[in-house]
Specification:
- With 223 residues, this protein is an all-alpha fold.
- The chain folds into 2 domains: 1-46, Arc Repressor Mutant, subunit A (Orthogonal Bundle); 52-218, Tetracycline Repressor, domain 2 (Orthogonal Bundle), CATH 1.10.357.10.
- Helix content is 71%, strand content 0%.
- It has 10 helices and no strands.
- The longest helix is centred in the middle third of the chain and has 28 residues, at 113-140.
Length: 223
């Protein structure tokens, strides 16, 4: 019975944090949604911040980041499948809710250091698995070898979270479609270029500048 009450509180918090945000959501909103007495909250959580940390962990695990590590699937397809899964999830939640991680990150202040730390860890872990998939693509030649995998992974996640913010405002999938249309072509190089080949890090560094200059001159998007 006790574990069931705790589960109700956690599930209610995920729903309320997603809909209202961390700061605007009080303990009363959470217990009302859970249908439990307010005193029950403090039997399991000493503070709302500790509950938020658990909610973030559950949300991150449910984002199916393991898709990115499935080496039975080509790397580019893994990346697309991962972001398409989240796009479908936002549709299920309602495009007006957006990403729980992004929502809480946008309002996390120095007054909630544990939440900020949990957010930083979640984003770092997400970046790491995206970067690993990119490196796999560079190894098999499907992703441009001269790209910095870590930097591109951060860029992809930053771009995704920005698209999700606009998705919330527009209450539409269109910003997510823009993400897919513009970000994924950057991974394979500019239109008209030959497929990327595997090169050493020294060769990649020396070739990056003229390649970028070529794209700038041709008006193609930068990688």
């Amino acid at each position: 019975m006790a574990s069931r009450v705790r589960e109700k509180i956690v599930n209610a918090a995920m729903d309320r944090f997603h809909a209202l945000g961390f700061s605007a959501c009080g303990v009363q909103e959470i217990v009302d949604k859970a249908g439990v007495p307010k005193g029950s909250f403090y039997n399991y959580f000493k503070a709302k911040e500790l509950l938020a940390m658990e909610v973030l962990e559950i949300y991150s695990k449910s984002s199916r980041r393991e898709i990115l590590a499935d080496r039975t699937v080509p790397p580019l397809q893994r990346l697309r499948d991962h972001f398409e899964f989240m796009a479908a999830r936002y549709k299920e939640f309602g495009y007006s809710k957006g990403c729980l991680i992004g929502n809480i990150a946008a309002e996390a202040s120095d007054n909630v250091p544990l939440v900020r730390q949990a957010l930083a860890q979640s984003l770092a872990a997400w970046t790491a698995v995206v970067a690993a998939a990119i490196r796999d693509g560079q190894s098999d030649g499907s992703i441009a070898a001269d790209l910095d995998a870590e930097g591109v992974a951060r860029f992809m996640i930053n771009s995704w979270e920005g698209a999700v913010v606009r998705m919330k405002i527009a209450n539409s999938r269109q910003p997510l479609d823009d993400f897919f249309s513009f970000v994924f072509p950057l991974l394979v190089g500019a239109p008209g270029e030959p497929p990327p080949r595997k090169v050493s890090s020294k060769q990649a560094s020396s070739s990056a500048r003229p390649r970028l200059a070529k794209r700038k001159a041709s008006g193609a998007p930068r990688g």
